[in-house]
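Q&A FORM
Asked by: J.P.
Topic: structure of Putative membrane protein

PROVIDED:
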Amino acid sequence: MAVTGRLGLLALFGALVVGLVWPSKTGILAVGGVLVLLVVVDLVLAGSVRPLAFRRSGDTSVRLGEPCEVTLVVANPGGRAVRGQLRDAWPPSAGAADRHALRVPAGERQALVTSLRPTRRGDRTAARVTVRSVGPLGVAARQGSHEVPWTVRVLPPFHSRKHLPSRLARLQQLDGRSAVLIRGQGTEFDSLREYVIGDDVRSIDWRATARAADVMVRTWRPERDRHVVLVLDTGRVSAGRVGDAPRLDAAMDAALLLAVLASRAGDRVDLLAYDRRLRAAVQGSSGASLLTSLVNAMAPIEPSLVETDARGMVAEVLQRTRRRSLVVLLTGLDAAPLEEGLFPVLSSLTARHELIVAAVADPRVAEMLTGRGDAEAVYDAAAASRTTAERQRVTERLARHGVSVVDAVPEELPPALADRYLALKAAGRL
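REPLIED BY: S.T.
REPLY: Here is the structure written out as tokens.
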């Protein structure tokens, strides 16, 4: 029971006056009787919360860190006005401003807008709507809760989008839409032109030269319609936090940039997320629908605190990918998991596909390397040095198997991975 409002305070003051006038047991009973009567009257006159009807509308998806709004319409079919407070409860990670003043006359409705700014990826589901209807005296209130379902899917933010224009410009050069044309194994013939100093003599077309007055060379462009398979390792290594986010989020950001770039290059892009089982898959999407499909598939994925089944992951890739493709595995470079998991099955993957391993490095390790201030800093520097050496050894061993390795901090991983893809295009290895 709550005493609120001017009428409620006046009623309570009157009851206290009665108690002062008759300071006896009879007076105390009179005060109690007056308060009970006020409460009963207030509860009777308060609008009922049970028959209220609710309807939601608004945003169903939003990028992480951006605001969105969900509208809740409250209809009052009862015979008394409902006034008081409403709480539209959401999980804390939804970042909801969930408390609203409510005043709905009988037979009318009110629209309330809940603003959200989510702080985590995934599906954020409304919990329940709780209404407190205060009586006209403000002495007491009715309260009830209603289930009004609504889900907002929080998508990966795709911060690396800012790197896309510069990589698309380089792609245009490789694709022959600019003046720069390249030559390389596995590229498509584009046209003939006259030889200029600096051209590779291996590109001379001797038959065309014999028919023309000048030496003619062939120009080439990167092949289109290649197949790129993005594989997200969602096992234990992806759960480690780098800064304020798990490694998996940085891997997703890099995968999105590469996917959009490869799609613009005319390549087909698929996605697999795997730890001990398949968590998500995107196949057959292209053009404008590709990015939508990818972010919706990635949004609900959370790291699993289990060791990844590398054998099962490779088998899934080989089963779904028959033709030679570029496989991009976004995982860690920790020696122990790779020794026991990936290395024993690596040859079966590299024999059929071009492989890039992309890993998220922790910038804190580089900072610890320079620490010499006290004994603790020296120990940290030694640990960081050992970690760096182990990652370097793993990188060298992968390179001996013909695997390209991209190891960078979260902000640098997306553009570095995109650059490696463009370098493979330029070298004719795709």
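FOLLOW-UP: Residues 17 and 145 are 37 Å apart (CA to CA).
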